[in-house]
């Protein structure tokens, strides 16, 4: 997909695979939509079948730690083992390793950046949130997402929020009617030339 030529948007689902990942995957398949899943290793371990499906159905995987600690308050050894254990779990489940890192809570600093670089991964945050975890309301999630949707947006959502998954068919239809192609994060950041340890979008106050 060439996101210079067409309107693209990347929906991203954190902390999973969540309980409702199977239903979400069915919906994405039905509408020929791609997504990116920032997986938490402990759930990769307990729900490997979804991870396998994500890869088989053309979605992108990212690493979101093993147990979701704030990396800016963690020792380097903890950060490394949180990332490595998740890489290992994904490899075991689906035969591939994530190439993107989303630190828990989107919290990163120069130490986290250096460790991401060791793993060869850029860090991907989001351009806007759906607020799904706080509203837990189908209409509110749709309204918020449409309000912040722009070409090449990276939208934060969660596949453990039932209302996100319930509302996904209507949301995807509406986005597609507006001309959006639902693509992976790598599709929308293709022109950013991200290097290992880089962060995108760059947060306010980030210095390197
Ligand atoms: Zn998270």
The CATH class name reads: Alpha Beta
Ligand names: zinc ion
Unreliable runs: none
Strand content: 5-15%
CATH 4th-level superfamily: Glycoside hydrolase/deacetylase
The rounded Rg comes to 16 Å
Main sheet: strands, sense, barrel: 6 strands, parallel
Give the termini distance in whole angstroms.
Answer: 31 Å
Sequence of secondary-structure elements: EHEHHEHHEEHHEHEHE
Q: Could you report the average pLDDT, rounded to the nearest whole number?
A: 97
| Count of discrete alpha- or pi-helical segments spanning 4 or more residues | 9
Number of domains: 1
- Overall strand count: 8
The chain-level structural class is: alpha/beta
List the helices and strands and how they pair.
Blueprint: E1 8-16, H1 21-30, E2 36-39, H2 41-46, H3 48-56, E3 60-63, H4 76-94, H5 110-118, E4 123-124, E5 128-129, H6 132-135, H7 138-148, E6 153-158, H8 162-177, E7 181-182, H9 185-188, E8 199-200
Parallel strand pairs: 1-2, 1-6, 1-7, 2-3, 4-8, 5-6
Bound molecules: zinc ion (ZN).
Relevant terms:
alpha/beta, binds zinc ion, 9 helices, single chain, 208 residues, TIM Barrel, two-stranded parallel sheet, 6-stranded parallel beta sheet
Description:
The structure is a single chain. By secondary structure, the chain is an alpha/beta fold. It has a single domain (8-200), classed as Glycoside hydrolase/deacetylase (TIM Barrel, Alpha-Beta Barrel), CATH 3.20.20. Helix content is 42%, strand content 15%. The protein is built from 9 helices and 8 strands. It has helices at 21-30, 41-46, 48-56, 76-94, 110-118, 132-135, 138-148, 162-177, 185-188; strands at residues 8-16, 36-39, 60-63, 123-124, 128-129, 153-158, 181-182, 199-200. The strands form 2 sheets. Strands 1, 2, 3, 5, 6 and 7 form a 6-stranded parallel beta sheet that branches. Strand 1, helix 1 (21-30) and strand 2 (36-39) form a beta-alpha-beta unit. Helix 1 packs parallel to helix 8 (162-177). The longest helix is centred in the middle third of the chain and has 19 residues, at 76-94. The mean pLDDT is 97. Zinc ion (ZN) binds at residues 14-15, 64, 68, 104. The site of zinc ion has 5 residues, from strand 1. InterPro entries: Glyco_hydro/deAcase_b/a-brl, NODB_dom, Polysacc_deacetylase_ArnD.
């Amino acid at each position: 997909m060439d996101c210079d030529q067409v309107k693209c948007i990347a929906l991203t689902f954190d902390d999973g695979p969540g309980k409702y990942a199977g239903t979400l995957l069915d919906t994405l398949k039905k509408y020929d939509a791609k997504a990116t899943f920032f997986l938490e290793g402990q759930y990769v371990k307990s729900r490997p079948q979804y991870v396998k499906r994500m890869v088989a159905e053309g979605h992108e995987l990212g690493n979101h730690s093993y147990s979701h600690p704030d990396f800016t308050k963690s020792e380097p050894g903890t950060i490394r083992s949180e990332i490595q254990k998740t890489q290992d779990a994904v490899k075991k489940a689906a035969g591939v390793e994530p190439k993107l890192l989303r630190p828990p809570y989107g919290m990163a600093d120069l130490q986290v950046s250096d460790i991401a670089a060791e793993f060869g991964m850029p860090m991907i945050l989001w351009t806007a949130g759906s607020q799904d975890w706080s509203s837990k309301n189908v209409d509110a999630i749709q309204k918020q997402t449409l309000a912040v949707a722009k070409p090449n947006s990276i939208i934060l959502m969660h596949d453990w929020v039932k209302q996100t998954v319930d509302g996904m068919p209507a949301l995807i239809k509406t986005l597609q009617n507006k001309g959006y192609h639902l693509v992976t994060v790598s599709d929308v950041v293709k022109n950013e030339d991200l290097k290992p340890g880089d962060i995108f979008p760059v947060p306010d106050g980030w210095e390197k």
